[in-house]
């Protein structure tokens, strides 16, 4: 089952991206390096609740 999740910047906490993930294969929270418009650089983005 896929679930829609929101990714937030680890530095400024702005919620920039939405994506989907398969809950049955990925139980842990997703962490991806993406570009943050607010910070102006590539930062770590984590899955939010």
TrEMBL record:
<dbReference type="GO" id="GO:1990904">
    <property type="term" value="C:ribonucleoprotein complex"/>
</dbReference>
<dbReference type="GO" id="GO:0003735">
    <property type="term" value="F:structural constituent of ribosome"/>
</dbReference>
<dbReference type="GO" id="GO:0005737">
    <property type="term" value="C:cytoplasm"/>
</dbReference>
<keyword id="KW-0687">Ribonucleoprotein</keyword>
<dbReference type="GO" id="GO:0006412">
    <property type="term" value="P:translation"/>
</dbReference>
<dbReference type="Pfam" id="PF00471">
    <property type="entry name" value="Ribosomal_L33"/>
</dbReference>
<dbReference type="InterPro" id="IPR018264">
    <property type="entry name" value="Ribosomal_bL33_CS"/>
</dbReference>
<protein>
    <recommendedName>
        <fullName>Large ribosomal subunit protein bL33</fullName>
    </recommendedName>
</protein>
<dbReference type="InterPro" id="IPR011332">
    <property type="entry name" value="Ribosomal_zn-bd"/>
</dbReference>
<dbReference type="GO" id="GO:0005840">
    <property type="term" value="C:ribosome"/>
</dbReference>
<dbReference type="InterPro" id="IPR038584">
    <property type="entry name" value="Ribosomal_bL33_sf"/>
</dbReference>
<dbReference type="InterPro" id="IPR001705">
    <property type="entry name" value="Ribosomal_bL33"/>
</dbReference>
<keyword id="KW-0689">Ribosomal protein</keyword>
<comment type="similarity">
    <text>Belongs to the bacterial ribosomal protein bL33 family.</text>
</comment>
